[in-house]
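Reviewers of the previous submission asked for a worked example of the structure-prediction workflow described in the proposal, so we include one complete record here. The input consisted solely of the amino acid sequence. No template or homolog information was supplied to the procedure at any stage.
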Amino acid sequence: MTELRSILDEAAHQGLISPDAGGRLLPFLAERGVTVIEARPVIAAQEEQAWSDTETPRFVRGFHDVLITIGVVVALGGLWGLAALYAVLPAIIVLSEILVRWQRLALPAVSLTIALFCWTFLLMSFFFKPITPAFNGAEATQFVAGFPIILGAYYVRYRVPLALALCIMSALAFVLTLLLRLMQWASGDPQFFANHPVLLAVVCLVCALGLFATALYFDLGDRMRRTTRSDIAFWLHLGAAPALLFSVRLLISFDGNLLDVAQTVSIKTPIIVISVAVLMLIGLVIDRRAFVTSGLLSLGFAIYGIFRQGSATVDTYIFTTLIVVGVIVLVIGTGWMPLRRIVLRTLPAAISQRLPPAVLEATP
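From that input alone, the workflow returned the following structure tokens.
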């Protein structure tokens, strides 16, 4: 009875059944002698034996989700073009009630969360100036403050993993702006970070490491990647990798120019390449392709910078960059599991046993 109750509670927690239905099913199944005392470990063993990929984010459960998402994007795009900004929010809420809370469609939930994030960005931009490279503590803090509140409320209502991930990332961004504002205020220098770019880079790197640590917290809490914690970690890793790379690049850039990504001197580009390689190794260890994929854009810029410094023509180093990045993607993609097995063998057992398994693909 206890095992059956826990299974029904887990099904209700994942949204497969309602809590009331779980309460009614328990005596119904118990009266008919349904037990799961021996079946559960057997199923778990079979699933672990057949495991070939632990990173399967639950975005699309069928083409029905894709079709509905296209309708959501087109309808909201049209409404955004015709109506005022405040008219879009009720539409997002109504669609969320129908598609997310009632029908529990995964991909439409992601698209509506992104729409809410864009709406929040436009709302904050209407009241406050967007964040610019020349840091203004008050404007930046006010601009970011609304994101964790709105996205957090959306997650509490609809339990969309992306909403919680964006809420966490925006909360860390809010903490970052607060720290920068306090340091600027304590120094008494309005141009403090323009005069101390290394300190700005260190603070950004600390916050990026905090985001990565938060993603690992969710990951380690669901080693077998069976709950929504894994989906939340997926989105957090997707944001952590570029944040780390941006912080590293900012740390080695002493000119204060944060926007000119391709303009790198000879010593900076190899450091970026090495940083991307380290992040790829970390992604391999924790079994997160998303962590690797989000760093490929920076890797492309770094390789672009290497060829740009040579005597190659524009067409040559652009297409060579594409070839190099494509080969790296293919090598990592096709050899992911064998590479993971090699890497995990070199790690202590205390660490490897807390990470997702790297097992052979099951043969049919």
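Residues 263 and 305 are 7 Å apart (CA to CA). We consider this example representative of the routine output the project will generate in years two and three.
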